[in-house]
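Researcher: Sequence recovery benchmark, item below. Answer with residues only.
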């Protein structure tokens, strides 16, 4: 075991743990049984902290390791995520953040619940939870690779300990702990990367000057498949938006202006943090590994390890240790966000709104804490025993793009969106994306060829949602062509307790949008 590396990582984890515990005590003083405090920090998060937690959450270990890996394998032209995520967060801030924050929602699923009721919330939660689990497992797996290089210990140990630390402070402090530990983790990450760069630039064996003289690392645009490439770009940009991790921070800030600011600055910050991994990936193509600890390393063959191994082998010992600890800090900042995200949606949208509507604030927070532990255990097990984590995460992220994004657009910007449109749109989008398959993981059953299958599925989902929702609204509410007793999904069949006898005759009892499962079955505010 590397003693110096162990001490540095131990100090890092202790600092994060102490900050998390102190933040948890702050939460306790400000009413820990309040779900708004546990899930969105009482909507009092300073914008600076919001920017830091947004940036830290985005740059998880998979983001940084994946950037270097992509440069080595495919060149800058295919290293889309840093650019696309910056654009996606910018669009999210300008288009979605203000509307979500002004409505004072607790989770991303709340507007879906308002328009479509429990059915779509459960289905959407299931897809979001899978994406969260696969993302968490993938970044925990990347952490295992990083710390195994640094400490020379089993990845199983480093993954388990890291998940336990993240779960511990998230369990006690929820959003406040996650936000303030993210600030510390971001500082560790930025300092570690910036500290390593001068030594990498000046190391003769790394041959950093070759980046200028040899454009190999840029990639070859002449072999670029244009249509799939555009499809990938669109999926990365708009697929960045419909995540609870993003909206949890939007909803925790003091105002919609702060939410927009956080999105724009946080997106740009995440791009800046990707620059060192880009350079390291480019430099690795010309590195001379002879005489290093990993002399037989082949960057093209083991591209996923490029970032930690370059830092470890081509910087002074102390700098290399700090640099690898920086990657570990980035991973921790994403893991705690996933734990908070999945547990918040379950406690608020599934448990309290569906399973037990009379649950108290204290009971809901307790359920959230139990969910944090469960998600941590499942993510850890997946990271330890599953070999196709990255492929599953890719599939899950695509499903979020083709299902959750068009559904969120519908419920936020289309006044007549309802379950009659949302449900078939969900099933269609899921079938179209699964039909494309996933290499070495899921066989394809729809021959798309070079068609942009992700964006096709997303647009068709949006079109079906709007078309069928409008048709249902016209038939049940506008023209009254179909009696309300046939409204089996109860999208318009909303009554006051004493008005059921005149449901088919009184226009005031017909609601143009919303679900009967909302607001304790009271009439929604928008009527025909």
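Model:
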């Amino acid at each position: 075991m590397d003693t110096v590396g162990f001490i540095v990582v131990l100090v890092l984890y202790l600092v994060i743990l102490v900050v998390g515990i102190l933040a948890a005590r702050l939460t306790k003083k400000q009413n820990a049984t309040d779900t708004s405090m546990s899930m969105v920090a009482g909507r009092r998060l300073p914008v600076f902290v919001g920017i830091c937690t947004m940036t830290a959450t985005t740059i998880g270990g998979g983001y940084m390791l994946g950037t270097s890996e992509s440069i080595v394998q495919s060149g800058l032209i295919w290293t889309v995520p840093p650019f696309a995520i910056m654009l996606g967060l910018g669009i999210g801030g300008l288009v979605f953040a203000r509307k979500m924050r002004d409505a004072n929602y607790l989770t991303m699923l709340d507007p879906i619940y308002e328009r479509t009721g429990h059915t779509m919330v459960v289905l959407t939660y299931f897809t979001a939870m899978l994406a969260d689990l696969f993302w968490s497992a993938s970044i925990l797996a990347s952490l295992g690779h990083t710390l195994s290089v640094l400490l020379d210990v089993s990845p199983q140990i480093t993954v388990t300990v890291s998940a336990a630390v993240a779960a511990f402070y998230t369990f006690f402090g929820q959003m406040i702990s996650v936000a303030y530990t993210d600030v510390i983790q971001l500082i560790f990450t930025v300092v570690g990367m910036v500290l390593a760069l001068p030594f990498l630039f000046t190391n003769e064996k790394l041959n950093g000057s070759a980046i200028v003289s040899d454009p190999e690392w840029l990639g070859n645009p002449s072999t670029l498949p244009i249509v799939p490439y555009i499809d990938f770009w669109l999926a990365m940009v708009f697929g960045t938006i419909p995540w609870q991790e993003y909206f949890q921070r939007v909803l925790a800030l003091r105002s919609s202006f702060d939410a927009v600011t956080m999105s724009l600055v946080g997106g740009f910050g995440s791009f800046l943090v990707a620059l060192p991994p880009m350079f390291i990936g480019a430099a690795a193509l010309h590195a001379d590994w002879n005489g290093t600890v990993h002399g037989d390393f082949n960057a093209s063959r083991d591209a996923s390890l490029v970032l930690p191994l370059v830092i470890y082998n081509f910087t002074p010992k102390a700098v290399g240790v700090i640099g690898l600890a920086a990657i570990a800090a980035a991973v921790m900042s994403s893991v705690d966000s996933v734990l908070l995200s999945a547990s918040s949606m379950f406690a608020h949208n599934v448990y309290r709104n569906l399973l037990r509507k009379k649950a108290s604030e204290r009971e809901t927070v307790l359920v959230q804490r139990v969910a944090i532990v469960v998600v941590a255990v499942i993510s850890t097990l997946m990271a330890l025993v599953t070999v196709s984590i990255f492929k599953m995460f890719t599939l899950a992220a695509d499903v979020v793009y083709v299902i959750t994004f068009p559904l969120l657009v519908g419920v936020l910007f289309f006044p007549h969106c309802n379950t009659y449109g949302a449900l078939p749109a969900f099933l269609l989008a899921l079938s179209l994306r699964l039909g494309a398959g996933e290499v070495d993981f899921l066989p394809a059953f729809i021959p798309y060829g070079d068609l942009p299958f992700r964006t096709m599925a997303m647009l068709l989902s949006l079109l079906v949602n709007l078309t069928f929702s409008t048709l249902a609204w016209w038939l049940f509410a506008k023209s009254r062509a179909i009696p309300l007793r046939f409204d089996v999904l109860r999208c318009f069949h909303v009554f006051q307790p004493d008005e059921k006898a005149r449901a088919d005759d009184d226009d005031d009892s017909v609601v143009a949008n919303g679900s009967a499962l909302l607001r304790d079955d009271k009439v929604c505010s928008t009527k025909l």
